[in-house]
């Protein structure tokens, strides 16, 4: 019947959404992101921002895992608010996130989007923990012609260069 069909479609949407999203943050998960990028094909272009929260293990150790989980949720919300509708925010794993900053057909730069994310993360606070200062290290790489995997590797390398350079900074890959 029509009612059963609607119910099955709703259940399918719910299961699909749970499979594509990280349970803690509500962001897309790594598997979804990789499938999304693969489906984009050879015409895909944009920038990938690899984000890693600085000293997250210390936060978990000093304040507990419940606080760490609250921080992940807070950061996820902050990142969604700071990005554009066409960008894709993903929790890569642990305290790492990847953001696809899509470029439009016209020549445009993603640097304003990166700056918004940096400012938003810098202003993020966790209720009840006034002394906790959040910072993140980031690596960024652009890609064209669907070469997103190579860009992700470059963004990851740039992230670790940012960490070696003192953390709390953005490193742009060549």
Q: Would you mind describing this structure in some detail?
A:
Helix 3 crosses helix 4 and helix 4 runs antiparallel to helix 5 (111-122). 49% of the residues lie in helices and 20% in strands. A six-stranded mixed beta sheet has the order 1-3-4-2-5-6. The model has no long low-confidence stretch (mean pLDDT 90). With 174 residues, it is of the alpha/beta class.
Query: What's the average pLDDT?
Result: 90
Distance between the termini: 57 Å
Which structural class best describes the helix and strand composition? alpha/beta
Our count of helices gives 6
Helix amount: 40-55%
Order the strands across the largest sheet as they lie in space. 1-3-4-2-5-6
- State which percent range the strand residues make up: 15-25%
Inertia-based shape: globular
What are the secondary-structure elements, in order, as H or E?
HEHEHHEEHEHE
How would you sum up the major sheet? Answer: 6 strands, mixed
- Note poorly predicted spans: none
Tally the beta strands.
Answer: 6
Tell me the Rg in angstroms.
Answer: 17 Å
